[in-house]
Amino acid sequence: MASAASFRFKDLEIELTKNPQQKPEPSELVFGKNFTDHMLTVEWTSEGGWKHPKITPLQPLQLHPGAKALHYSVELFEGMKAYRGVDDKLRLFRPEANMERMNSTAARAALPNFEGEELIQCISKLVEVDKDWVPAAKDCSLYIRPTMIGTEPTLGVSQTEEAMLFVLLGPVGSYFKTGALNPVSLMADPQYIRAFKGGVGNYKLGSNYGPTIRIQKEAERRGCHQVLWLYEDDHQLTEVGTMNIFMYWENESGEPELVTPPLEGIILPGVTRRSLMDLARRWNECKVTERTFTMQDLIKGLEENRVKELFGAGTACVVCPIDRILYGEKDLHIPTMDTGAVVCRRLYQELTDIQFGRVAHEWVRRIES
């Protein structure tokens, strides 16, 4: 649902806080628990289009209890990060890809579109305002959460006539308590389905995530860290918790191959996913393939010692090794760490080298401050 015009960075209004918070120590950071002093908001109506963007002190939203977001999940979000480089400069990583995905999700949710470059500039200014919140510690960054909600106070399942886009910032450390590059275990139970073709599994809607929480708790009850989401009767591997999944193995033809499920309507088109495939293709050392693979493919590969590594990938965790899958009565050992997680570690190192400015790259955008 495209509005007549996007909001513009040149119209950005800024109000600074008079009561700055105490910043947490990097060693105390827990993902998603801390927020910076300021936020960005932009309101929209079907009649007037986008209003001026505003940076204000962090504060609660004022919503009518009949707001559509509260009743029908008319809501979407994005996840991206700002990094303090080795040169102390601040950088965003492939923000254009996040804007592309956010606009795609907005169209699917009948929420208003906007010009991605305008939001990138507004976010860059917000990060600049709260630049002292960007951690300098290893494995730490500033998480950026753009969100859009339907705010029209009207009951009834219909397109919202009012919306709000807002952006929160928060310093974060490692996503998992196990820390960066420490392996996780997965519960793979085919009775639980995350998404289906023709649905909205390939969009970053809040309604895709809330229903997974109880299943995550079930995985923890069974002694696993995360859920491996399976699909169809042949138990195709799709995603890991909120991450995309990759397998590095020797395929049926004896070729080294890095494989990840294809984008066919049930897989989120992850920015990290795209980046890892791009990096691996530049090595020219193995096939990089998007194709369906099943639990039986995995089990057969394990029995024949062809599976080398399995790992998840996403903005929050970057890359996460997998060393165990609980699948029915089978407790499968995945040899990711046995082989030294060579591919996983290499991808992690190359990607973070780019993000933290150790290597110059076209994927990053400097925030001038």
Explain what the structure shows.
The protein is of the alpha+beta class and 369 residues long. Helix content is 21%, strand content 29%. It contains 7 helices and 19 strands. It has helices spanning 68-72, 95-108, 116-129, 213-221, 271-283, 295-303, 342-355; strands spanning 13-14, 38-45, 49-50, 54-57, 75-77, 80-84, 90-93, 141-150, 162-172, 184-188, 226-231, 236-240, 243-250, 256-260, 287-290, 307-314, 318-327, 330-333, 364-367. The strands form 2 sheets. Strands 1, 2, 3, 4, 5, 6, 7, 8, 9 and 19 form a 10-stranded mixed β-sheet that branches. Strands 10-11-12-13-16-17 form a 6-stranded mixed barrel, surrounded by 4 helices. Strand 12 (236-240) and strand 13 (243-250) form a beta hairpin. Helix 2 packs across helix 3 (116-129). The longest helix has 14 residues, at 95-108. The radius of gyration is 21 Å and the shape is globular. The model has no long low-confidence stretch (mean pLDDT 95).
